[in-house]
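Format notes (please read before filing issues)

Several people have asked whether sequences and structure tokens are stored in separate files. They are not. Every record keeps both together, in the order shown below: the sequence lines, then the token lines. Line labels are part of the format and must not be stripped during preprocessing.
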Amino acid sequence: MAAERGARRLLSTPSFWLYCLLLLGRRAPGAAAARSGSAPQSPGASIRTFTPFYFLVEPVDTLSVRGSSVILNCSAYSEPSPKIEWKKDGTFLNLVSDDRRQLLPDGSLFISNVVHSKHNKPDEGYYQCVATVESLGTIISRTAKLIVAGLPRFTSQPEPSSVYAGNNAILNCEVNADLVPFVRWEQNRQPLLLDDRVIKLPSGMLVISNATEGDGGLYRCVVESGGPPKYSDEVELKVLPDPEVISDLVFLKQPSPLVRVIGQDVVLPCVASGLPTPTIKWMKNEEALDTESSERLVLLAGGSLEISDVTEDDAGTYFCIADNGNETIEAQAELTVQAQPEFLKQPTNIYAHESMDIVFECEVTGKPTPTVKWVKNGDMVIPSDYFKIVKEHNLQVLGLVKSDEGFYQCIAENDVGNAQAGAQLIILEHDVAIPTLPPTSLTSATTDHLAPATTGPLPSAPRDVVASLVSTRFIKLTWRTPASDPHGDNLTYSVFYTKEGIARERVENTSHPGEMQVTIQNLMPATVYIFRVMAQNKHGSGESSAPLRVETQPEVQLPGPAPNLRAYAASPTSITVTWETPVSGNGEIQNYKLYYMEKGTDKEQDVDVSSHSYTINGLKKYTEYSFRVVAYNKHGPGVSTPDVAVRTLSDVPSAAPQNLSLEVRNSKSIMIHWQPPAPATQNGQITGYKIRYRKASRKSDVTETLVSGTQLSQLIEGLDRGTEYNFRVAALTINGTGPATDWLSAETFESDLDETRVPEVPSSLHVRPLVTSIVVSWTPPENQNIVVRGYAIGYGIGSPHAQTIKVDYKQRYYTIENLDPSSHYVITLKAFNNVGEGIPLYESAVTRPHTDTSEVDLFVINAPYTPVPDPTPMMPPVGVQASILSHDTIRITWADNSLPKHQKITDSRYYTVRWKTNIPANTKYKNANATTLSYLVTGLKPNTLYEFSVMVTKGRRSSTWSMTAHGTTFELVPTSPPKDVTVVSKEGKPKTIIVNWQPPSEANGKITGYIIYYSTDVNAEIHDWVIEPVVGNRLTHQIQELTLDTPYYFKIQARNSKGMGPMSEAVQFRTPKASGSGGKGSRLPDLGSDYKPPMSGSNSPHGSPTSPLDSNMLLVIIVSVGVITIVVVVIIAVFCTRRTTSHQKKKRAACKSVNGSHKYKGNSKDVKPPDLWIHHERLELKPIDKSPDPNPIMTDTPIPRNSQDITPVDNSMDSNIHQRRNSYRGHESEDSMSTLAGRRGMRPKMMMPFDSQPPQQSVRNTPSTDTMPASSSQTCCTDHQDPEGATSSSYLASSQEEDSGQSLPTAHVRPSHPLKSFAVPAIPPPGPPTYDPALPSTPLLSQQALNHHIHSVKTASIGTLGRSRPPMPVVVPSAPEVQETTRMLEDSESSYEPDELTKEMAHLEGLMKDLNAITTA
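Then the structure lines:
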């Protein structure tokens, strides 16, 4: 088994596989180098490899007896085979001349005929196996303890005893612990057979349960430990018949505290005796143990508990409970579980160069906590300036030298055992690069410059090395570049330094190439150091600079901490602090400064003290304070002492308990409730409350009762029927009794009434209406045997459920105030008790008008009954206000009209504040009590609307809830990241991905945007990730021009007005592999939303000179359009000469034509707007009335004017529009064309820069509505109608305008683009953010050969205002054909005056200039 475990461990060791690679490398050196991944070396250089060297088997603790033989196993693996030696108690054994000890071939130690006596114990002790390989190093095994059992000695002997049949008996036999395994029992000189009824406990004690006659006889215990057996006294056990009488229950053996190691078995002894025979149960930490179903817990004979394979969870307190039906007894014991040391992290092999710093890491666990020591080649490592234990267990070696090579072992020990783990250190020559990446155990200062060297010139020595800054514990060095490389941009530098007279040299490297300074930290004051600097280039290290000798500054001699700082409370308001003179005063101490601070605050106070003690007065009672002292000498303040905390003494409470209330339970008892005094007035731990009560008629006879400090209510019983009592309560501390509350009275019932059901209906209800109030009076229910605790009055205009007021059970009338005059009120009255409210009684009344001034004071006198006057009922608090203080705190304040004007509370009333939020809808109210007129509500959710209301309670009387106040907590940065982050590739565009997400669950405010981070390296620093901002509350975003077939990682961060929230977890997405590009049907490149068209002369739809619409074709078409336009102008001029003489007649005719009297004969599909829809900058638009025709097909003007011009007549389009607007979420919509655009086919869109428009101008997101002069300058009602764009926001705006019957002119924009005469898209009007679908496109220029798929462009949304915007598509309608234009003009009437014609000609002149500018461009 040992060999098998060793082989398994060998196969799992990285060193083993490296060793196998090296064996292969002897046959194929090139292949081995390739597999190992080692860097290429300079000629002649070789890398020594780590050698597998470890123990296959280590010795374990062993128990032996005198005269026997023992084998301590040990076997180590290495190539070549190691030499095995043994140490005993730290000293090597000389096995050559030893007759009894010999080394076996596998390395184990054999000891024959173990020697052990009282004065001679040569074999007992601690053994270690030591394995050595010459020229490699040494390792040592764990320490094994050999215990030799001593001579048998009985610490207690069995005693004669008797036992009743069926009961339990024990016989003691205690020997030294190492002999317990060798104890056995004899009955009548014959070996005793053990079974489930008769057992031997681990201590050697014999337990006999359910005794029978056969158990009687002579017993003795025997110890056989190698020599002659040792016998105890022989005693008789008598078994008596069952007397059938009860005997006391007693423990024969109780459990005792035990300590066990994980994995061992433990027996907790517990044996009881008594009649009837007891049964035993076990509990652990007050939980019953189930010994029947557990595999690890077994109940042994007599009741002892055995736990097998102990774990750490088994530790705790165990209770043994014996019960025989008449009485129960219990005993307890603590089980402590310990654990041997185990390695959480073992040291790893390290390659290094001389002068480097390394760290061997070692993490261990165990119970008790193990101590760690380090061994190098079998010898203990003694901590020094260069060998340091860091982070408790790690070994740091500074400034390596060649002799530091070898095997280092981490040895962990505790009381239970020990363990070892090791690693090898190999120091390479400086011209040999460290293979593979630097291991994690290298410090940051030495991980640089490990790249392999290549052949080439090396740099010369750095010049002018100087110490530019010398301090007590650090030195800053600077230098110039070597003469061989005066620029030195690619040079790195290493600074070697050592203490004068010390051979060990340490190294510090510069942080980046070209840096020519370094700061050496952690130096000793007033110490001489030697420095030298070397430069490195890609070929290796160059020459060293001349040594520089520098001495650090001496440290300023400041005082050390004052020793023996003590503080003790002298009184409830003072604390005395004492200390002694600092050991390292470094000169005369001038004075001390004592700092103190109340626990839980951050305000520290100080006082100057010249002596060694000081008493601070005026402190708060029973409050914890912390103190520290700083000594001062002539150099300044020294080192502060650690804080010492102490609490002032307690005192009697300085305030009475709060919110005292009384509740009459029946005719003989009253329940008292109260709250503790305010925390600041308790002045100590409340140990109890003193309740004093008396009859109201006999104020001298006072009864007292005490209750515990945790009790906040008490039922006072044994009172007289129908009697009024006064009560008061005071709080107690160990120092005495504090002030008491004011006397509060309550009257017991005349008889014990029934409160198992609700009260019956009141016997009568009368109302007397006044102008702004109604006086309500009533009589109690006829059945006086049911408890009535009060009356509930409901009232309201037309309904009694608007307001509810509760009054005391003794009250018989109430005045409802603040009512409206001349209003019909419905009033309801219900009696209630603790069971609920009874049947209501209804009445109605109409308040009097303002003019009614009749006397109202005679009502009570004229009533057929005499109401009993009672104090004014409790009115609800008024003026409730909520003041928002933070994201989770709101202060509620209110006023109480029943208090005096100064609003000072002098009685025992208290207020109840309740609050809730309506999100979610089923949220319940939360309540809190207050004794002042304000309350601080904390623990609220950020950015949440809460409603608050307050009621007042005095005694048993309570008001209704006040009017509610509302407050919304401040926003807080999001506390959770966006969720459900998904990344998908865009169909047909492999370089474009779409990121989708959901808002954070804890947004804590309105989300104003998101930031998308993406990177190809998930471990990169976050400032190295690419940032993609998203404005507004969009939940999707496109990222374009990514690299194909590349994994990307995405994180999203939400922000609100308070800042950024946490980032989401990284989501990985690999872009698709590249598909075939070009050829038929291939897509144009995805330009994305941030694409800016080049500002060149070619304004093609693609913004590229290589577009199918080249510049020559564009020029030809523009000239053609110009010719057509001239023809149109000539025709218009001819028609203008035939105008009528009456101006009004012409205007009516023009209006008539617009209203539908002249329409095209053809279908609506024949309508084709002009190609170049150009408006002049000086053209003014006049607002006009809308056409009364609700559904015009086409007017005299061929330009679209409203939504009906470009949409079908039916309502399906409207629903489609809204559906598209609601469903669109920021994706490019290539197919979302309008109906008209769909009929005309897909045509290219013109891209124009959106940034050219001033953001403050409020214009519509539509093409310009300026029409061509010859066809659209009618002055009646055809000057202007606001046309509809194709975006959803434009449709919405149009519908609103049509409803209002007004039409606003389109504002003019002065574009800066070369195509300035083209209409530009405008910014949508301010309003709720909407996500617009793509604009419908219409033909710009007809070209039959244009059959490519044209890329679509996202339109701007309202969220883009005020920031950099992508280019916008411009919708340019196509020109009508000449025949259509002629037909239009023939169907219209001429209505131009001469001055109008002059203006139109001027406009035409400007149009031609614009055409020339376009052609030239």
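For reference, the curators noted about this record: The chain has a mean pLDDT of 75. The radius of gyration is 50 Å.
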